[in-house]
Amino acid sequence: MVLPAAGCAVLPPARVDGEHATVRAPTSGIAADVSARTERLIDGIRRILPGTVVPELEVRVESDLQAGNAEAYTVRDVGRDGRTARARIHVGLRSISDDHVLAHELVHALAGPSWSTLPPLLNEGLCETIAAELEPAYVEEVAPWHVAIVALSVGVVVEVFFDGAAGDGETPPPTSVTLAIDSEDRFDLETAYELTTADLHDRGSWGVVRAAYGFGYLIVRSIVSEHGVERLHDLCRRAAREGRPRVAVEDVIALAGLGTRSSPDWAPWVKRHATESTLRVLGRVVARAFGQLLANDYRGAYSGMSGRDFVSAYGGRFRLAGGETSAVLDDIEGVLAALDEHWPAGSD
User: Fold this and answer.
1) Nearest alpha carbon to residue 317 among 309, 325, 308, 326
2) How far is CA 298 from CA 47, 64, 83, 188, 313, in A?
3) What's this model's pTM, rounded to 2 decimal places?
């Protein structure tokens, strides 16, 4: 999260001055640790992200961060030339052990004026992508939530299928059954592309901010994976040369492999990025729907079994329709509880 320059609270008491940044924290031990990690991350960002400029930089670790639901935020003082003269990163004490959070904010602070035509939606995506490059564990820990939120935002069809047999004499269940998941708040890229930084972080006025972060991450990740970060940087510099305030949305859609501006094709794009971890997150969100779907379709024919026994015996799994990656149904948090509710033992 990046914000314009603003006033600040009481300074944390401990201070360590590093090569590139000053760190203030509640204790000298925390300050020294965060300083070492900050310097390492700055070196990593400068190595892989073109167009970086190191400003006068301060990182503040705060015991009681006042930032709504945010784990951290960055305040920048930007000059007329678009260069960040000073930047101050505020990080909550409970989040400071997470290098991904710190790396994300450092990208905000270090991205130079040549990135200024990248809209806030994609700026957040750039920070997430570079942080993931530096901290690969992030891809398995946080990225699945981004992909699942994107899937829910554009609407997807999931397929429940069975790869086991209950035993001799049992009639196997149908090959598959589908569940359409739709959203009342469909993500509109054109609208999100025009959002200002203030809009993007005003959770009271825009209820799909989490989807925006997800889309920003996946769009930038797709471009960087296929074409390299320099290609995205080139788009930003070209927009500046042509006097445009931001990179053309049609260029972004094309580079990300989304089809055309008039008809972006989200479904195959989401499937490309969906991992088993993504499906686990998605399954948790729609666990109750899975329980009701399976009970409605199979309870009558398999009344001698409970829902959880049925899913276990027949090897129930699910995937995005047409996708290859799948997850085991009864491993998904909430699915067994939903089956117990809609298809308990002894029901008919």
Assistant:
1) 326
2) 56, 51, 62, 37, 13
3) 0.85
